[in-house]
Design goal:
The structure holds two protein chains of two kinds. Chain A contains 14 helices and no strands. By secondary structure, chain A is mainly alpha-helical. Chain A has a single domain, classed as ABC transporter involved in vitamin B12 uptake, BtuC. Chain B is an alpha/beta fold. Chain B is about 35% helix and about 25% strand. Chain B contains 16 helices and 21 strands. In chain B, the strands form five sheets. In chain B, strands 6-7-8-3-9-10 form a six-stranded mixed β-sheet, with helices on both faces. A six-stranded mixed β-sheet of chain B has the order 15-18-19-13-20-21, sandwiched between helices. Chain B has a four-stranded antiparallel β-sheet with strand order 2-1-4-5, covered by helices on one side. The longest helix of chain B is centred in the middle third of the chain and has 16 residues. Chain B is globular. The N and C termini of chain B lie far apart (about 50 Å). The chains are: A mainly alpha, B alpha/beta. Chains A and B meet through helix 8 and helix 9 of A and helix 10, strand 17, helix 12, helix 13 and helix 14 of B. Chain A: It holds the Pfam family BPD_transp_2. Chain A: InterPro entries: ABC_transp_permease. Chain A: It is a multi-pass membrane protein.
């Protein structure tokens, strides 16, 4: 790891520590004993296999959304519509799980996951088309499409896709053959977490070790130079948006076919798309960094739940803690990315050492 | 080291501007380190230094845009409050920045009035402002059109408006930052006359420049800066240009390099009828016809903004022409290869946040040698980059260092390494030495000459006339989007090219190069 990356990681860790300390102060002000609050938080995350399983279950969509963001931002594109792409992917996945029946799990489940990726990518493609062909700002396009999809999914869950009784405002559970098997008994954790880890590693590998990843980073760093030296930057931008959306779509699929209820309910995206951006921010857009960052935010979400249930401390505190993390990380970006003003001139006597230093990032 | 110092004959008290011990650090970098200088009324002081010597920082401190860490600035013996642009202007410091501070769609009168408008709410008396502007314009021989939006005016006229703006603000000290950068030689001669007259009228003038010729033409004294310090202040009349160059760079400098001559080979670049509609306002570029052979350097000279940048973009294939063709013929088999040194390496040439390796591999990453089935081959890539860094003498702490950490000269060497290592048939070098120090300039010139003796064709586009003269076998002069003349190196002189640059606007004939 380079010194700059180390410094970035240090800043992220420090931001989290400060934010947690700040929330402890707030808790103390409410009069709740800190040891009880800490215990509730700890129990919420690690207290039992079920609790820890629930934390990891929340980790899955968070890390996927974050990695989706990373792919787009590395190409210089802003995909703030991850939330919408989660909804689109989850809905497509639910449709496959509900209406394609009679298939064995080995076919049905992969189809359901694939449908999630395709559904997300399809929505991403609309934004990419608007950006590439119509000159619409990618930020605007992805964000506004989210609003449309949110309403669309709500209508589907309350209308065409609602369960047979037509009273619950959500769909029936998908076929068992389309659901991920439970990984740890008596927890909500399902086997999709294995796929997720593979996906994150694949994205990290793609960015570091492939020509496409190289061109993507180059396009993000300087599109003009990339274009001038033979990279098709618009194609890269479109591809990055679609790939980013596809990964969000897989997250959406997990939120349906790996959820306890296994059905489509309005608002099942539960803000994971936006929290994913926070995770990526904390990870400084490193795909591997998204793993610890997503674990942390998942733990906050999960522990915050018990904090509310046991001690009556509002779940809003978790949101506030996240906000402090965001402010601290963005506010200290100058430190991690500080440029060295000291320069070496051509006439300097220092001899460079062009030696290999292990893997290149 | 003893610093030779030529003092103004009067005492310091009579100085219009004096700078005492001014220091300013940016992080680890001492941009200004105990700067002392003074200018008397009626005197033109040249401030000479390479890029990065600290001239710009000093100008910002003098104009109140930057607060110094130490030291003080005195105007007429009274200290200036630091970091206060309004106070600096009120005290009589007028600055003509290299990039003009004019509102493009306002007229000269409006721009001047804008600069005066300190009392909010006071009515803007257009007629009075216009009258004063015209009076000063006439008195100092600086013709300007007061009622035309400045965006429609030529650069020279805009510069005069900037100067008049300062005069109308009762400037007593006039700072000009690289004023010749945007002027043709003829326009510069005119400005030199004006500056001398203004000095004779009692103004103190500071001329910031890195061109030795200008100093000899107008300045009385010259203060030389290097690495944030004043290394000498000399009387211009008593100092040879070589001595000034040595002071500026800190070592002996070859002011003119030897141009290799080889017999031209086969035609490599053939441009015919190349046209780009409305490249600037309603002005068209071209039609341009050019032929460049192997082993030949075609220099393109012209005042900035006359279509050279656009020509470079068209030749490099970054922009699509409205009409016409660019044909590059390979010396060997296959399609002709083109190497491009982009005019602005930061925006078009490099990805600053990426590593040395990433920047070196842009063109060749897809080749079998460096990637297989879309997967990079890091071992081969590293070996190749280490070799290029060695061959092109790039001073870098490592191959993974982001190029933004390197000096301008080393950044440009990376561009050269990338663009020349593919042994291109045609090299397009646009402002290849802009912003580089003398050592790096020598290196770049050496590489261009090496490309030439290797049989490659070169199109050199440069605002530095000396550079064009030093390297080119033939020189095309551009004006108003056209090539107005093509001269052989033997018949090309500064004066001849200067005339053509200025005269081309009226002639506007097509010339086949």
């Amino acid at each position: 790891m380079s010194r700059q990356a180390l410094r970035g990681a240090a800043v992220s860790v420090l931001a989290v520590v400060v934010a947690l300390a700040a929330s402890l102060v707030v808790i103390a002000l409410t009069g709740v004993p800190l040891d009880k609050a800490a215990a509730a938080m700890w129990d919420g995350v690690f207290g039992s296999p079920a609790q820890f399983g629930a934390t990891l279950t929340k980790f899955v969509p968070l890390v996927l959304a974050a990695v989706g963001w990373v792919i787009a931002i590395r190409a210089g594109r802003l995909n703030v519509g991850l939330e919408g792409q989660i909804l689109a992917g989850g809905t497509a996945s639910a449709a496959v799980g509900l209406y394609l029946t009679g298939l064995p799990t080995v076919i049905h489940l992969p189809l359901a996951v694939l449908a999630g990726a395709v559904g997300g990518a399809a929505l991403g493609a609309v934004a990419a088309w608007l950006w590439a062909r119509r000159g619409v700002n990618d930020f605007i396009a992805t964000l506004l499409l989210t609003f449309i999809v949110t309403q669309l999914v709500s209508w589907l869950a309350n209308g065409p896709m609602e369960e047979p009784t037509g009273t619950l405002g959500q769909s029936a559970p998908v076929a068992d053959t389309a659901r991920w098997p439970i990984l740890i008994p008596r927890t909500t954790l399902r086997a999709d977490i294995l796929l997720v880890i593979v996906l994150v590693l694949a994205v990290a590998y793609m960015l570091r070790r492939t020509v496409v990843g190289y061109r993507l980073r180059l396009t993000g760093a300087n599109p003009a130079a990339a274009q001038a030296t033979g990279t098709r930057t618009q194609l890269i931008g479109v591809g990055a948006l679609c790939a980013s959306a596809a990964i969000a779509g897989v997250a959406g699929s997990s939120l349906v076919v790996a959820s306890p209820a296994g059905n489509l309910a309005p608002g099942f995206s539960a803000n994971y798309g936006f929290d994913g951006i926070v995770v990526a921010l904390l990870a400084r857009n490193s795909p591997l960094g998204c793993i610890p960052a997503a674990l942390l935010l998942a733990a906050l979400r999960q522990g915050g739940g018990l904090l509310e249930a046991r001690l009556g401390i509002s779940n809003g505190l978790v949101t506030a803690t996240q906000a402090v993390v965001i402010l601290l990380v963005t506010g200290t970006a100058w430190y991690a990315e500080r440029r060295r003003p000291r320069r070496r001139t051509a006439g300097s006597s220092e001899v460079p050492a062009p030696v290999a230093e292990g893997a290149r990032s | 080291m003893a610093v030779p110092t030529a003092r103004p004959t009067d005492s310091a008290a009579s100085a219009a501007l004096s700078v005492r011990g001014v220091s300013k650090a940016y992080g680890d970098l001492l941009a200004n380190d105990g700067i002392d200088l003074e200018v008397r009324p009626g005197e033109i002081l040249a401030l000479l230094g390479e890029n990065g010597a600290g001239k710009s920082t000093l100008v910002k401190i003098l104009s109140g845009l930057v607060r110094p860490d130490a030291g003080e600035v005195l105007v007429d013996g009274r200290p200036l409050p630091p970091g206060d642009p309004l106070a600096a202007r009120a005290a009589g410091i007028g600055v003509v920045h290299q990039h003009f501070m004019l509102v493009p769609d306002m007229t000269a009168t409006e721009n001047v009035a804008l600069a005066q408008g300190r009392a909010a709410g006071r009515r803007f008396d257009a007629a009075a402002t216009r009258a004063r502007l015209m009076e000063l314009s006439e008195r100092h021989g600086m013709p300007v059109r007061p009622d035309v939006p400045v965006e429609q005016l030529p650069v020279g006229e805009r510069q005069r408006i900037e100067i008049l703006k300062c005069l109308l603000g009762d400037a007593r000290v006039l700072l000009l930052d690289e004023p010749s950068a945007v002027l043709s030689p003829v326009e510069w001669d005119r400005l030199a006359v004006v500056l001398k007259e203004l000095a004779a009228a009692g103004l103190a003038i500071v001329l910031i420049t890195h061109k030795l010729g200008e100093i000899a033409a107008v300045a009385d004294r010259c203060t030389v800066m290097r690495s944030g310090r004043v290394v000498a202040t000399v009387q211009v009349g008593e100092t040879r240009p070589e001595e000034l160059a040595r002071l500026m760079v800190g070592r002996d400098v070859v002011l003119r390099s030897e141009r290799p001559r080889i017999d031209p080979g086969p035609v490599i670049l053939e441009v015919s009828g190349l046209t780009l509609a409305s490249y600037r306002g309603d002005r068209d570029l071209g039609p341009i016809d050019l032929v460049v052979r192997g082993g030949e350097v075609l220099g393109v000279a012209g005042v900035e903004g006359n279509g050279q940048s656009e020509l470079a973009d068209l030749l490099a294939g970054v922009r699509t022409p409205t009409a016409g063709t660019v044909r590059v013929t390979s010396r060997t088999a296959g399609p002709g290869r083109v190497g491009v040194i982009a005019e602005d390496r930061h925006t078009d040439g490099l990805a600053l946040s990426l590593s040395v390796i990433d920047n070196l591999m842009m063109r060749v990453i897809g080749q079998e040698e460096f990637s297989r089935h879309g997967v990079l081959r890091p071992g081969r890539i590293r070996r190749r980059c280490a070799e290029l860094v060695e061959r092109f003498d790039v001073r870098t702490p490592g191959l993974d260092t982001p190029v933004e950490r390197l000096s301008g000269g080393n950044q440009q060497k990376i561009v050269l390494a990338r663009e020349l290592s593919g042994e291109p048939d045609l090299l397009i070098a646009a402002q290849p030495t802009r912003g580089l120090d003398v050592g790096a300039i020598e290196f770049v010139h050496g590489r261009i000459n090496a490309h030439k003796t290797g049989g490659g064709a070169t199109v050199l586009i440069s605002a530095e006339l000396d550079e064009v003269l030093a390297l080119s076998d033939r020189i095309a002069v551009m004006s108003a989007g056209r090539i107005v003349a093509v001269l052989d190196a033997a018949e090309a002189t500064r004066d001849r090219i200067g005339e053509l640059m200025a005269a081309g606007v009226e002639q506007g004939e097509d010339v086949v190069a």
